[in-house]
Amino acid sequence: MRYAETGFNLEVDLTRGNIERVATDPKLTELHLGGLGTNAKLFWDRVPPEVSHFDPENLLIFGAGLLVGTPAPSCNRTVVSSISPQTRLFGFSMMGGFFGPELKLAGYDKVILRGKSPNLVYLWIHNDEVEIRDAAHLRGLGTLESAEALRMELEEPNAAVASIGLAGEHRVFFASIEQGRSSASRLGLGAVMGDKNLKAIAVKGSKDINIADPMTFLPLCNDSLKYIKHREKNPIPGVMPILAGLGSPQEMAIHDEKWHTENFAWGNARVRRKGFWTEEVSEKWTNTMETMRTRLLSCYNCPMKCGAAISVDTRLCSYMMKCFSKLTYTMGAFSDLDFGLRIAQKATEHGVDAFSAPQTMAFALELLEDGILTADDFPGMPEDNEGRFYWLLDHIVRREGIGDVLADGTHWAAERIGKGAEEYAHNCIKKTEQLPLKLGMLNQMYFLMYCTGEKSNITQIEGNFPQAPFPTREEREEFTRDWPHVPDERFKKWFEDWELRGDHSIPNYPGAEASYEIVNWQEKMHYIDDCTGMCAGLSSFPYKPPFHIHNLPTLISAGAGLEVDEETLTRITKRNRDLVRAINITRGMRREDEKPPDDHWKKRFPEFESQLLDGYYEFKGWNLKGIPTRDNLESLDLGYVAEDLLERGILEEGEGTPTVEASNEGVPS
Ligand code: SF4
Predict the structure, then answer these.
(1) Which of 391, 402, 548, 659 is the most exposed place for a label (fewest CB within 10 A)?
(2) What spacing in Å lies between the alpha carbon of 322 and ligand 1's midpoint?
(3) Which whole-number Å values give the CA distances from 95 to 31, 76, 190, 499, in the listed order?
(4) What residues have CB less than 8 Å from 314, skipping those under 6 apart?
(5) 3-state SS, one letter per residue, for 552-586
(6) Among 88, 56, 36, 84, CA closest to 188
(7) What is the per-residue pLDDT across 102-149, written as a single tens digit (0 to 9) for each?
């Protein structure tokens, strides 16, 4: 018997209209867990680097994490994976809500889509009945409208529906897949869905999920719920409210936006607005939120209520919003929250990523202001900033006029526009991923996360280690007194000794070794979550979460019937992490791509930054070009990956784990 997972994937060939229920190999669960891990393995095996994002051979996988649908709180994540049209690398984007649990209850761990349908279709999964159905009547409908139409048509008011809007249909490179209470919004995976002519997947299940050792598993789940209650009453003192509790940052519950509005960059990530947050602004924005927010919402089996239903007009579908997407349109357009929440309704219906879309629109306006684009490129565009944003959104999702160029995102649009537009696509990492903020000063941990993180967006690998030191030693010691989450005691000391100023402040402290360990710990936690399907909000993201490296092995073992301890879990995570990296390396990702934007912080330390990267690569078992070494891959049971890299001439015969001194090839000066 299989535990926690169903042991079956749904393989759908959209070209031929063929559907198969395929039993999976339990050995792969032992090696990779599930979710991101087994998604990555499928990509390695089936999607060679010669296949590009819009080729029919590109897969689009909806993979529910290993523990999704079990009683473990917040285990509801579906990892959507494909080759991203935006980065041309392996892209994965997590969505919460109810889709993953419904898929598991219907009897499947993943939906694996290949090929392209000749007509617009949707997929209906209802336990053993699975059908590809015509979706001509849904063409042009919004994501929320489509979901509503499908629930009515299927007479299943509780079916989970993942759908694309106009942006996905028109293959906008930052098109999202929306799912009511969550979305897979980053990296343009909605464009791949649109390219496959798949408008939506609707799923409803009513089967059981087996737990291997409920007598161990359920008490752990109950303890976590008790701890969540305790933390509700005991927020962490001395940190900003959005970081004091659990869950995703509680943007929908709080009104104080001083930190985001004054520290994140406005427009096309250019401008900080110190002193913006006044009493008057605070009052106005609170009023907007109180008027438009109809209720707070949770994902499946989670008490945290991180999202909110937003209703801007009773004639339009209300939509779910959470986290920093509350502010991205507002800040992109230099407007206010009322505008931000209104345009986000349209953007959610069209299905675009709330990070990339507003920044791309601000980028277009910057090009217009500086004469690189002209008024002729924007025929009929209104004069006011808000009107311009609506006009741009409409043209982008339809790929009309200049919207066709902008629909490729800032990097690719700048390449098409030329005339120096590249300088305006200034806030990207790995060439194409647009960042929302700029740091004031080099922080070595964030430097490493920006450079090497292969999850989209830095905020998705930061986590359990505080983002900044607390002002006094007493406060820091108070924090570490109750901090069993750390891998070992050294982490407590690094935090206790970390000062705001002086010798023990950034960039000198924490030292290189400590920084590597801290970054690695945080990334490890995220990779575990992305395989189990646990929400980062109760594990890898907040300070002092209920789930951590010391209790997750027991939860995974008791849930899935695997024998996992901290050491094996660490090894599995590293295997998955290096497999993701190897996929991207075969697709051309190199050290040159692993640098923050030039203007990301005021003072740069080129030599120090280069040494940090050298040391971190070595720490990770990668050579100085950032490529996992043969020894490292073989030690992770990824010998077949090493063989492939050798055959492709990416690794060289006899190349083990070189020391920093062994080679300087590829190191930027
Ligand atoms: S912590 Fe928040 S985002 Fe995460 S599962 Fe719970 S409600 Fe959803």
Answers:
(1) 659
(2) 10
(3) 23, 8, 13, 37
(4) none
(5) HHHHHHHHHCCCCCHHHHHHHHHHHHHHHHHHHHH
(6) 84
(7) 999 999 999 999 999 999 999 999 999 999 999 999 999 999 999 999
Q: Average pLDDT of the chain? A: 93
Closest among 332, 340, 307 to 95, alpha carbons compared: 307
Report the residue count for the chain. Answer: 669
CB 666 within 8 A of CB 627: no
Question: Could you tell me the domains of the chain?
Answer: 8-204 (3.60.9.10), 244-421 (1.10.569.10), 467-561 (no CATH), 565-669 (no CATH)
667 CA distance to ligand 1 middle (Å):
41
User: Can you tell me which atom of ligand 1 is nearest the CA of 74?
Assistant: 5
Mean pLDDT of the 89-96 span: 94
Give the pLDDT score at 662.
38
Residue 540 CA to ligand 1 center (angstroms) comes to 12
pTM: 0.96
At 419, the amino acid letter reads K
Ligand 1 centroid to Cα of residue 309, in Å, is: 14
The residue to mutate among 183, 231, 248, having the most atoms of ligand 1 within 8 angstroms of its beta carbon, is: 248
- Which residues contact residue 25 at a Cβ distance below 8 angstroms, ignoring those fewer than 6 apart? none
Using CA atoms, how far apart are residues 332 and 473, in angstroms rounded to an integer? 38
Residues with CB under 6 A from ligand 1: 74, 76, 96, 247-248, 298-299, 302, 304-306, 535, 537-538
Which atom of ligand 1 is least distant from the CA of 298? 7
Distance between Cα 661 and ligand 1 center (Å): 45
Q: Which atom of ligand 1 is nearest to the CA of 76?
A: 5
Amino acid at 76: N
Residue from 306, 326, 460 to probe ligand 1 pocket by mutation (most atoms less than 8 Å from CB): 306
